Each structure stands twice: as C-alpha cells, then as structure tokens.
Amino acid sequence: MTDAANDQGFGDEPTFEHLSLSSADGVALITIDRPKALNALNAELLLELATAFDLIEADVNVRALVVTGTGRAFVAGADVAELATLADAFAGREASLGGQDVMNTLAALPFPTIAAINGFALGGGLELALACDLRVAAHDAKLGLPEVGLGLIPGYGGTQRLPRLIGQGRALDLVLTGRHVPADEALQLGLVNRVVDDAVDGALELARQTLRNAPIALGLAKEAIVRGLDVTLPQGLEIEADLFGMAVTTDDKQEGTAAFLEKRRAVFEGR
Q1: Is residue 112 part of a domain?
Q2: CATH no. for residue 253?
Q3: What is the count of structural domains for the chain?
Q4: Selection from 79, 181, 77 nearest residue 137 by Cα
Q5: Beta bridge partners of 24
Q6: CA–CA gap between residue 8 and residue 25 (Å, rounded)
Q7: pLDDT tens digits, one per residue of 187-222
Q8: Which whole-number Å values give the CA distances from 94 to 60, 86, 107, in the listed order?
Q9: What's the whole-number average pLDDT of the chain?
Q10: From the DSSP assignment, how many helices (H) and strands (E) are in the chain?
C-alpha cells in the first residue's frame, strides 16, 4: 500500500511502500502492510516507521496513535532473511541499535500510543508493541519472543521492556522458552491491557477515551511514569513533583478545574 496520508493533517508527504498513515479526530493510525511477509520488520520498513513517527509527532492535531498490521499479523517478527546475513558482532550490534532507535522514537512520543494486535506479534513485532504505552489484542492474537530458537536474543528492546512490564520471572519464562502466548494468557500476564473482538476498533476506542483528557497532562503523566521506572522511589517522587508543578501552570489546568467546579465538560486546547 502506498497511501502515506489522508486529507486530515499530513499534507503532501512522501508515500510509503510498506505502511499507510492516516488521521481522524485527533487519532493517527499506522497500518503496516507487508502481508506476504506477515508484516515482518526489514530495514526499509523500520526506516518508514521512523519517518512516520516523526511526521505524527510534528502534527499538532494528533493527540494519540494506534499502530496495527494488515492480514494475519500485527508484525510476525524481524525479517529473518536479513538477520541471516549478519555475520559479525559489529554488524549485529548496529542492527540492534538501529531497531532500538525506532522503538525508542515510538516510546518517546508525547501522547498515548496503542498497539492494536490483530494477529501474530512475535519477536520484533512484540518489541514494537512493547514500545507502545498500551496494547489491545484480538482474541486470536499470539504473542512471543522466539529469538532464542534462531540462535539470537531479542534485540529491539525486548529483554529490557518486557521484564519492566511483566516482571523478571515471567519475562524469563517467555524469552527462554520462546513460546507463543495466546491473548487470554497475555492479559493475565499483564502483557496486554485488553482483549477484544476487533483489535483496531478496540484500540481506537481506547485512544478516544484518552482524548477526553488534557493533552499536556497526558504527556506529563506518561513522562513521570517512564522516567520514574529508572530511579529510586524518592527520586521518582521528585520527578512527579516537578512535572506536577509544570501541569499547574497550564491553561488546561485552569480549564479543567473550572469545568469541574462549574459542573460542565472541559474543553482542553493543549496549552
């Protein structure tokens, strides 16, 4: 698919070969489209994703992002044919860092990001989902990090984000066995947030729920949680206090508190 953008916000940007990008009512939607390869992440697709994330961040109208895939897979992994060509430690390290950079760009977006897991989310696909803030899975979704079966380890952030999300023991279980986890078990593990009939519809509904809230507050809350994971509790509380102080100075805070006291719905402008 070569549709890079619809008529709501992304203008005359270059088209993409392996994904489509659209937006409506403040929610951007990236659909990965390599169905013959089960949407596997090759170097070209990673570059397209990085470009798409930059476009979305630059669009002032976007307040949430949903990422999904076409066909039977969300993303079924990294492109094994490309991985097979890696033969030395330097090339392997650079490939890992390149993939991590794309995932880090997604994770750093200053608004809610949601993976709509419509099928297989394996290897690099699960790592893409882990870089999102929230994950919504269809009932028939399968998730896993099977890299050890290829003589590899997860290289796009999986060994770091997964234990932070579900704990060390559960992460080791998934990584060392390489097993595929069905959606219901993924929900029990805390790997996904919701299991629904249609992953995209469920993710879009979740995105719209976040849009009811103040945009700056959403970004600050996300920043407080993410930064706090890497420091001690007292240091995290300092981060929270600093960001709370920033929230107090916004027009959105004035609007939100006034609307509550006046018993009306707040109209946030992101200022």
Answers
A1: yes
A2: 1.10.12.10
A3: 2
A4: 181
A5: 27
A6: 9
A7: 999 999 999 999 999 999 999 999 999 999 999 999
A8: 33, 10, 20
A9: 91
A10: 11, 10
Beta bridge partners of 29: 22, 66
Structural domain that includes position 236: 215-261
Are 48 and 115 within one domain? yes
Q: What is the pLDDT of residue 12?
A: 53
- Strands 142-144 and 181-182 turn out to be antiparallel
User: What pTM, to 2 d.p., does this model score?
Assistant: 0.91
Looking at the chain, the whole-number percentage of residues with pLDDT higher than 70 is: 95
115 secondary structure, DSSP code: E
Annotation marks residue 255 as catalytic:
no
Q: Is residue 132 part of a domain?
A: yes
Residue 25 and residue 86 in one domain? yes
Instruction: Give the tens place of pLDDT for each residue, 35-78.
Output: 999 999 999 999 999 999 999 999 999 999 999 999 999 999 88
Residue 117 included in any domain: yes
In a shared domain, residues 160 and 43: yes
Is 82 known to be catalytic? no
Q: Regarding beta strands 134-138 and 113-117, do their DSSP bridges make them parallel or antiparallel, or are they unpaired?
A: parallel
| Catalytic-role residue among 57, 94, 127, 205 | 127
| 201 and 221 assigned to the same domain | no
Catalytic site residue from 13, 57, 147, 205 = 147
User: Is residue 147 a part of any domain in this protein?
Assistant: yes
